[in-house]
Amino acid sequence: MKQTSPFRLDGKTILITGASSGIGQATAIMASYMGAKTILLGRNCEKLKETYDQLNGPSHEIVVSELTEPHLLPDTFKQFNSLDGAVFSAGTAEVVPFRMINVDHITRIMNINFESPINCVKHLIKNKSLNKGASIVFITAVANHISPVGSAIYSASKAALEAAARSIALEVSKNRIRLNCLSPGYVQTPMFDQLAEKTKLDELINLTPLGIIQPKYIATSAIFLLSPASRWVTRSTLTVDGGLTIGVR
Ligand SMILES: NC(=O)c1ccc[n+]([C@@H]2O[C@H](COP(=O)([O-])OP(=O)(O)OC[C@H]3O[C@@H](n4cnc5c(N)ncnc54)[C@H](OP(=O)(O)O)[C@@H]3O)[C@@H](O)[C@H]2O)c1
Description:
By secondary structure, the chain is an alpha/beta fold. The chain has helices at residues 22-33, 45-52, 73-77, 103-126, 143-146, 152-172, 190-198, 201-205, 215-226, and strands spanning 13-17, 37-42, 61-64, 83-88, 130-139, 178-184, 237-240. A 7-stranded parallel beta sheet has the order 3-2-1-4-5-6-7, with helices on both faces. Helix 2 (45-52) links the parallel strand 2 (37-42) and strand 3. The N and C termini lie far apart (48 Å). NADP nicotinamide-adenine-dinucleotide phosphate binds at residues 18, 20-24, 42-44, 47, 67-68, 89-93, 112, 139, 141, 184, 186-187, 189-192.
């Protein structure tokens, strides 16, 4: 009998937000090489096309929509059906001393990092767009519990997402849908490069025993959570931080 790897995604359709850059882009590319049809969802068509050009195989799709405008989501999400997985990677980070934060900062960060994935999943569930056994992955961050200086709202947005994920996972489990969080440490992406210009991230990276992580190694963990190999994993957080968050030396 022919054996197929439980890590493969052949025949599956996977939606990926934030697919234009960094972790989302790496996840989309790897998912395509593992046999999936991918739907790249984002706001910047040109950047999404750059990802599209790196995918393996035909019949992938690009869907352009602004994820932080709740009134646009019903129309965007009504076109999705028979999804086997969804990865929510779209997000933003800003290092701001707490005394400097204002309502705009809080709204901007919470909007894309917390409200957007929650609203998107609500539409997927309401529209019955997810197949039985589908897997949802939220990209969170170890900041949600180590809370570095200048990251009060960013850390809170990811902590809120992880808390909500555990509750949503209970509600969708009756359809054998799984929901997990993937929590990276420092990953070499455009987001990281932007933050590195403004803060001494080198000092923090030096605290990571295995050093800075390349996006494709967050992607491999996302593939695991999407695949049948993680069939019994739900309501959990997979930490991929190069050893950063265990502080014993
Ligand atoms: N890099 C790290 O060290 C690190 C560590 C832990 C967690 N994370 C998390 O990993 C996820 C991906 O980050 P990354 O490092 O891959 O960053 P990135 O390379 O900057 O990519 C961010 C993605 O999010 C999208 N995005 C940002 N703001 C958006 C908005 N308002 N509406 C729609 N899309 C928006 C971007 O789309 P555009 O192309 O349209 O801008 C881009 O596709 C984020 O949730 C981040 O918090 C990153």
